[in-house]
Write a structure and sequence with these properties.
The complex is a heterodimer of chains A (580) and B (162). With 580 residues, chain A is mainly β. Chain A has helices at residues 3-10, 17-28, 31-34, 59-81, 85-96, 536-542, 555-560; strands at residues 36-37, 101-104, 110-113, 134-135, 139-146, 161-168, 174-176, 204-206, 209-217, 241-249, 255-263, 269-273, 276-291, 298-312, 318-324, 338-343, 346-352, 360-366, 372-373, 381-389, 393-402, 405-414, 420-429, 438-445, 450-456, 464-471, 477-495, 507-521, 525-534, 547-554, 567-571. Chain B has two domains: 1-79, Rna Polymerase Sigma Factor, Chain: A (Orthogonal Bundle); 82-162, Orthogonal Bundle (Arc Repressor Mutant, subunit A), CATH 1.10.10. Chain B has helices at 6-26, 29-45, 53-74, 83-87, 97-107, 112-121, 126-133, 137-158, and one strand spanning 2-3. Chain B starts with a strand and ends with a helix. Chains A and B meet through helix 1, helix 2, helix 3, strand 1 and strand 27 of A and strand 1, helix 1, helix 2, helix 3 and helix 4 of B.
């Protein structure tokens, strides 16, 4: 399957001649009202897209906000005293006894590398890209949407504010990361949790602060480069936005702009490692208009490769340490690498290709020599799907077909030697496509173990209990845990009762789905998303409430307890004041 | 360039595109037709001006996807059809592999369906999709990668010959 085959398949979907004629006939009526000119002069028309003050802070939120700073400071003080596991202990030791190596590359780039190591190596940045979780010693930072009502929804309805929240692990309370009094968290410049001056982006937590590479909008009313929110709404140009490195204080008191990486939209990655905040940013400029060969649209918002920046925490100095290029895709965009991990003396990132074969190469740059392996021939893991990373190994998966069956071979790669060995081979499709064969899918790893969960080709209506398998680095099962969480989805068809919903058939389908899916570990806990959704009628029948929540279970409990207890960390829909 | 009836013009030019987008988002032909025609009826009722055809197309797609999201929210249901249901659908009865692929496209859940459609069929870049859907570009890239992977795996699982 490739892009062209997908496109060919979708293009088979067309209006039937009869239906097309019906719609055209309806559209022909009252043509005078519909007569409009294309390329008509744009009429300036302002429309307030954000309804300010519709969300008033509640007394509970205000109290939580006041307590938040105190809780955070107590939490941070406690973090100094606690080890927080092997990695945190090493990091704390390195922080207390900094050893600085002065490195100069052949091209003259000079670095002052400390012993500090990255804390977010295990983090799969793309597990839940809409609401990336950033674990800390005492809780989690995450993004959650605050919905603001909108009367119009057919064009840009973005009245929703994406705000930064913190959940305290002990209390289960969630609060916006904003300590400013009387703030309603409505996207104003005043709010540190939801300001629209800066775009949302992935974050990394280090030493009481959150770091992110993101976009600073010089004119926040201009948020779009091509698609106008309404007639006459101004479009943003490259020089009206900046790619910046931000530091959010974890207590919600301030946002500090640490460095600027040039014009354009900041959609990069960052990680804190060896005394630097390392940032991948895409170079952008206003160029000549180039046509997209598929849409035939033109754009002058161009990217020309990517850059790796280093921001030295001790001095506040920043500099480009590597200029990268890449193959332009159909939109003439040289896509920057995905994700960034600091491991030992290397920074790792991975490249994807703009086709359906999906090979990914895990690449790296040596902080000691500046040597880079980022070409297809030289990548650490060529031609496979990258799955997970630890401080010493990586896991990739590749498909194999043999005797009419399809297998997924999970490979463990030693990052020092490059040695690969088969970790797990899962038969995902055999001779009988209907069989509900259970196989395991590896999802994440830490420095000790590898985590997999059961999956299947077809699920019976009564569902399948989610099972988690913990493997050692030799591929031997250490523990298998059958959870109480059932995974299933089903559809029920019936005659339509809702007369307000126009349908061409008198039947409608009701849907129910419930999935508990482990997604990543921070080396201390294993996290899982627990999503329940469906028609209210079926939810009531099942005795469940719709939710989209993140759960966690300590790894030690998974290893040792007869019945490990999963707790709800937070939910993406609403503040979890009543969590657990 | 002037057109007598912008909604009719849009339907004739982008009617199939709108239907395809709605189908990929909802996985249901009838719902897709409902949503797609409502967009053109709304444009017919409240005509507006566009810079060019590309602006018109972007508007139509954005409106379709928003309405698909609204429909799911309104009905409190997300139409995510399992592979098993798809296999038993009317489309799968046809032996043509293209129809099988279409059936599997129906099973691709949100938010991957819209992203994969907009990138690989409508031809928009990740940044343009991010603007259209109000998401981060990195989010779109991740969803595109995961959506493609899921679709590819589904196709292999179903044993569809390409």
């Amino acid at each position: 399957m490739n892009q062209q085959q997908y496109r060919n398949a979708v293009q088979q979907i067309r209006w039937s001649p009869q239906k097309r004629a019906e719609v055209e006939e309806l559209l022909r009526q009252k043509t005078s009202a519909s007569a409009m000119e294309i390329s008509a002069p744009q009429k300036a028309r302002s429309r307030t897209k954000i309804h300010h003050n519709k969300h008033r802070v509640t007394e509970g939120e205000l109290m939580a906000s006041k307590h938040f700073r105190r809780i955070m400071w107590i939490g941070l003080a406690a973090s100094v005293l606690s080890t927080g596991g092997v990695i945190a202990g090493i990091a704390a030791y390195a922080k207390m006894h900094p050893h600085i190596r002065n490195i100069t590359w052949e091209n003259g780039i000079s670095l002052n590398l400390t012993d500090q190591i990255s804390m977010d190596v295990f983090h799969d940045w793309t597990t839940n890209p809409d609401s990336v979780i950033t674990p800390t010693e005492n809780g989690w930072f995450y993004r959650r949407t605050i919905e603001f009502p909108s009367d119009e929804y057919d064009w840009f309805p973005s009245n929703n504010i994406n705000a930064l929240f913190y959940t305290d692990r002990e209390t289960g309370k969630s609060v916006p990361v904003c300590a400013r009094p009387n703030c309603v968290h409505d996207g104003s410049e005043y709010c540190t949790a939801s300001t629209k001056t800066y775009a949302n982006s992935f974050m990394t937590y280090y030493d009481g602060s959150l770091y992110t590479v993101t976009t600073k909008y010089l004119h926040p009313e201009k948020r779009h480069t091509q698609f106008q929110a309404d007639d006459g709404d101004p479009l943003m140009t490259v020089d009206e936005c900046r790619q910046v490195l931000l530091r959010y204080s974890a207590d919600g008191t301030e946002i500090t702009e640490l460095a600027q990486f040039g014009n354009g939209i900041g959609t990069g990655w960052c990680t804190v490692h060896r005394g630097y905040v390392w940032c991948i940013v895409q170079r952008q400029e206003q160029g000549e208009e180039i046509e997209n060969p598929i849409t035939h649209s033109t754009s002058s918002f161009k990217s020309g490769g990517w850059q790796l920046w280093g921001y030295e925490l001790s001095t506040g100095r920043s500099a480009v340490i590597f200029d990268g290029m890449g193959k332009p895709d159909t939109n003439h965009v040289n896509k920057a690498p995905d994700a960034l991990y600091g491991i030992g003396d290397y920074l790792y990132f991975y490249r994807t290709h703009d086709d359906w074969s999906g090979p990914q190469g895990l690449c790296r740059i040596s902080l000691v020599t500046g040597e880079v392996t980022d070409s297809e021939e030289e990548v650490v893991i060529p031609g496979n799907h990258f799955v997970a990373l630890s401080h010493s190994h990586a896991i990739s998966v590749k498909d194999r077909k043999e005797n009419n069956a399809t297998y997924q071979d999970y490979m463990l790669i030693d990052l020092k030697t490059g040695e690969q060995k088969l970790l797990l081979s899962a038969e995902v499709y055999g001779d009988d496509p209907k069989k509900a064969e259970r196989f395991y899918h590896i999802v994440t790893m830490d420095d000790r173990y590898i985590y997999a969960f059961n999956t299947w080709n077809s699920v019976p209506e009564e569902g399948v209990p989610r099972s988690i398998m913990i493997l050692d680095y030799d591929g031997n099962p250490v523990r298998q845990i059958d959870t109480d969480y059932i995974c299933r989805s089903y559809v029920e068809s019936r005659k339509t009762k809702d007369k307000s919903y126009k349908s061409y058939t008198e039947y409608e389908s009701l849907f129910y789905s419930e999935y508990f899916t482990p997604d990543y570990t921070d080396g201390v806990n294993l996290y899982a998303s627990y999503v329940i959704y469906g028609d209210q009628e079926l939810l009531e029948k099942e005795g469940k409430t719709a939710q989209n929540a993140e759960y966690y279970c300590p790894i030690e409990s998974l290893l040792n307890d007869d019945h490990p207890e999963w707790k709800r960390a937070f939910t993406y829909e609403e503040a979890t004041d009543d969590a657990n | 360039m002037q057109t007598e009836n912008i909604a009719l013009y849009a339907f004739r030019k982008y009617g199939d595109t709108a239907l395809q987008a709605a189908f990929c988002c909802l996985g249901n032909q009838e719902d897709a037709e409902d949503v797609a025609q409502e967009v053109f009826f709304e444009l017919h009722k409240k005509p507006r001006s566009f810079n060019d055809d590309e602006h018109l197309k972007a508007y139509i797609l954005r409106a379709v996807i928003n309405r698909c999201n609204n429909l799911r929210r309104k009905l409190k249901r997300r139409i995510r059809i399992s592979l098993e249901d798809v296999r038993e659908s009317e489309l799968i009865e046809k032996t043509d592999s293209m129809q099988n692929i279409i059936a599997l496209i129906k099973a691709l859940p949100p938010p991957y369906n819209a992203v994969v459609y907009l990138h690989d069929c409508a031809g928009y870049s990740a940044r343009e999709i991010a603007e259209m859907l109000g998401r981060k570009e990195n989010t779109v890239s991740s969803q595109l990668r995961r959506g493609r992977e899921k679709l590819r795996m589904d196709i292999e699982d179903a044993g569809v010959l390409l």
